[in-house]
Amino acid sequence: MNLSKLSDLTPLVINTTNLTESENIVPNLISSTDTASQGYFGLGVMLVVFIVLVYTLFRQDGDIRMDIIRSVLFASGFTSVVGLILLVTGLSSSFVHLMWFLSIFIITLIIVLNLKRKGL
């Protein structure tokens, strides 16, 4: 095995300048999370919450049994609340991601109300 090609690697440098004062650790982590992910951290969290809730609510082997429309309605509503909390706390800076889940919530709410009116 020829390891001579690894001789020109630069050493790993970990920047801990923002983590030196204990009272500033949490605000620095919050601000660096959003800037490092370019605003997509909130979308990632909201997508995971949405998919887990839809899967959990739509499963037919558990105690809670909902159809897919009501599962998407509940999951998008809860995900919108989580997204609003992420937006207010500063972990996410993109309002567009929150509006996606609010739009899904409103569309599925209209569908559920229409189904309820028909008696389904």
Give short descriptive properties of this protein.
63% helix; mainly alpha; 120 residues; 0% strand; 4 helices
The overall strand count is 0
Query: Using only CA atoms, what is the Rg?
Result: 22 Å
- The overall pLDDT average reads 85
Distance between the termini: 68 Å
Measured as a percent range, the helix fraction is 55-70%
Write the layout of secondary structure elements.
Elements: H1 25-36, H2 41-58, H3 68-89, H4 95-118
In short:
With 120 residues, this protein is mainly alpha-helical.
What does this structure look like?
63% of the residues lie in helices and 0% in strands. It is an all-alpha fold and 120 residues long. It has a domain at 38-120. Helix 2 runs antiparallel to helix 3 and helix 3 runs antiparallel to helix 4. The longest helix is centred in the C-terminal third of the chain and has 24 residues, at 95-118. The termini are far apart. The mean pLDDT is 85.
